[in-house]
Amino acid sequence: MRRRIRNPELNDTIAGLKRKGRQNKSRVWLRVADLLAKPRRSRIAVNLSRLARNTRRGEIVAVPGKVLAAGSIGHSIHIGAFKFSQTAKAKIEKAGGSCVSLSELANNHPKGSKVRILR
User: Fold this and answer.
1) CB-CB contact of 75 with 55 (8 Å)
2) How far apart are CA 16 and CA 29, in angstroms?
3) Dihedral sign, CA of 99, 103, 108, 112?
4) What pLDDT was estimated at residue 45?
5) 3-state DSSP: the chain helix, strand, coil percent, rounded to 5?
6) Is CATH 3.100.10.10 correct for 8-117?
7) Are strands 98-101 and 44-47 parallel, antiparallel or unpaired?
8) Cα four-point dihedral sign 51, 91, 71, 56
9) Rounded alpha-carbon distances, angstroms, from residue 33 to 6, 13, 103
């Protein structure tokens, strides 16, 4: 039996990403929606230290989960995630980056080109 996601915000985000992926024939947003729809125990949490190691200045990154504040980041990135911890958001913005929701990121980059999925 398939479990039902009870978080309305998560349901809306998944449905919006799937819609955006089908409209623009973008596999990136369909993949992000699939990763978000996984069970809670498989949810993705990414620390700033991982973001710092695996990204370059000005890169666009999608995190289908939560961004946590462990570590530091020294360059600016544009990042979209389902959730951000308050301190992670502050550290990213202090480094000159920007934090947006996945829905906003999909609206700003509908084709998904140059968007990296980090998990």
Assistant:
1) yes
2) 9
3) positive
4) 96
5) 45, 25, 35
6) yes
7) unpaired
8) positive
9) 16, 8, 11
Q: Which two tokens stand for residue 106?
A: 């999909």
Taking the C-alpha atoms of residue 21 and residue 27, their distance in angstroms, rounded to an integer, is 6
Largest CA distance in the chain: 45
Is 42 exposed, middle or buried, given 0-12, 13-18 or 19+ CB atoms closer than 10 A?
A: exposed
The angle that helices 27-36 and 8-24 make with each other, rounded to 10 degrees, is: 160
Chunked in runs of 10, what are the mean pLDDT values of the chain (119 residues)?
A: 83 96 96 94 94 96 97 96 97 97 96 94
Q: Which residues contact 7 (CB under 8 A, 6 or more apart)?
A: none
Token digits for 39? 């069970």
How far is CA 38 from each of CA 28, 55, 112, rounded to the nearest angstrom?
16, 25, 21
The C-alpha atoms of residue 103 and residue 42 are separated, in whole angstroms, by 21
- The pTM score is 0.92
